[in-house]
From TrEMBL:
Residues 67-296 form the Aromatic amino acid beta-eliminating lyase/threonine aldolase domain. It comes from Streptomyces asoensis. The keyword Cell cycle does not apply. PANTHER family: L-THREONINE ALDOLASE (PTHR48097:SF9), L-THREONINE ALDOLASE-RELATED (PTHR48097). Residues 1-30 are annotated as: Disordered. Its cofactor is pyridoxal 5'-phosphate. Transmembrane segments: none annotated. Residues 15-29 have a biased composition (Basic residues). InterPro entries: ArAA_b-elim_lyase/Thr_aldolase, PyrdxlP-dep_Trfase, PyrdxlP-dep_Trfase_major, PyrdxlP-dep_Trfase_small. The keyword Signal does not apply. Keywords: Pyridoxal phosphate. Gene3D superfamilies: Aspartate Aminotransferase, domain 1, Type I PLP-dependent aspartate aminotransferase-like (Major domain). This is Threonine aldolase. Belongs to the threonine aldolase family.
Length: 393
């Protein structure tokens, strides 16, 4: 039967109402596994700066102009953490990575960038590598894991750079083992390619690898890190690597429009994140193991017959949950749980992964450390009951 324009409009309106209810429920929920500061009010964000900024930087210093002052201090802090010669602040990670790989293309003489089909530039950046920077991305694999050394060695054409997203977010925030990662890097070196880490969430990986940030970054020729992913900053990113590369990247940053007049709020929020959140990330990862196990147990006890937590043991403090229902059904159940009980087990959006199959991302943050395994199992049982209620109408 052909749908009418009126039916389509009504469906859009219903989804919009659900989004608004879900947003309100998330803000009002007393218990969540993580609380995203970016979704707070302007007052909340300004309060953070007012209270925490004096603890991380001398506020009697002159405000920054075009990257000096507090921005330069942030760059030095990142370079020290990652063990690189230098680092440059960028307003966005998209710009930072384009500049990094453009610089490497000029040095290697090869604009081809080997990457994963599910990597951020391929999925979320509208072909920016090619459209803006003249790069040519080629996909090493589509498997829901990082590329293997064998795939890198056996790839059928030359490439100048290999980009590895650590963790690979869209595959479930997955990581290779340390041995697998070192083998992949060695395979790229054998092909005379440079290695760039898309480390937007690199901060989260130390627990899984059992290595420091500097040991992880040392494997790559350059590394990008984000300040709002994992660290709860206002935005911004950094490109770290050899001083000659970073100096060249600053020139391209200017050409790309990234030489912003003043960036002190973002830089201060990044320093706050490095001070407050970075030391706690291993605790979040460890507790994510507890939460994931309790979710599996809760779904096994309460149904549905098919449910998946992926990875079963999370590699970071973020992971996926897959359930055999449409996304709208699960979003409605999550919203009702928050509205009725003050607990919101799943605060993230649900994405349709196929007919009658949806997934969401779970992040375990400071708020999640208060949850016991029993808390998670009880909340899972309540959520399943609400899913059945929504389905039954």
């Amino acid at each position: 039967m052909t749908r009418t324009a009126g039916q389509d409009d009504e469906e859009k309106s219903a989804r919009q109402r659900l989004r608004e209810r879900r947003t309100a429920a998330r803000r009002q929920a007393g218990r969540v596994l993580s609380r995203d500061g970016a979704l707070g009010t302007l007052r909340d964000r300004l309060t953070l700066l007012h209270e925490a900024a004096p603890q991380v930087y001398d506020l009697d210093e002159q405000a920054d102009l075009y990257g000096d002052g507090v921005v330069a201090a942030l760059e030095e802090r990142v370079a020290a953490l990652l063990g690189t010669e230098a680092a440059a602040f960028f307003p966005t990670g998209t710009m930072a990575q384009q500049v990094a790989l453009r610089c490497w293309a000029g040095r290697t003489g090869n604009p081809t960038v080997a990457l994963h089909a599910m990597s951020h530039p391929e999925v979320w950046e509208r072909g920016a590598f090619t459209a803006v920077s003249g790069l040519r991305p080629v996909q090493v694999t589509r498997e829901p894991r990082l590329p293997t050394a064998e795939e890198v060695r056996g790839f059928e054409e030359p490439f100048g750079s290999l980009m590895l997203e650590l963790p690979l977010r869209d595959a479930g925030h997955v990581l290779p083992t340390w041995e697998e990662l070192t083998e992949v890097v060695e395979a790229a070196r054998e092909r005379d390619a440079v290695v760039h880490f898309d480390g937007a969430r690199l901060w989260e990986t130390t627990h899984h690898f059992g290595r420091s940030l500097s040991e992880i970054a040392e494997l790559a020729d350059s590394v990008y890190v984000s300040f709002y992913k994992s660290l709860a900053g206002f935005g911004g990113a950094a490109l770290a690597g050899p001083k000659t590369l970073v100096d060249e990247a600053r020139t391209w940053r200017h050409r790309y429009g990234g030489a912003v007049f003043q960036q002190f709020p973002t830089a201060l929020s990044a320093l706050i994140g490095l001070e407050r959140e970075l030391p706690r990330l291993p605790d979040y990862v460890a507790h994510a193991h507890v939460v994931a196990a309790a979710l599996r147990e809760g779904f096994a006890a309460a149904g549905p017959a098919w449910a998946r937590v992926h990875p079963e043991v999370p590699h970071t403090h973020e992971f996926q949950v897959w359930l055999p229902y449409d996304a709208d059904v699960l979003a409605e159940a999550a919203t009702r749980q928050a509205e009725r009980t003050g607990t919101m087990l799943f605060v993230g959006a649900w994405a349709q992964g196929g007919p009658g199959l949806s997934r969401t991302e779970v992040t375990v943050g400071a708020a999640g450390l208060e949850w016991t395994a029993d808390d998670v199992r009880r909340a899972t049982a309540d959520f399943v009951d609400l899913v059945r209620e929504v389905v039954s109408g």
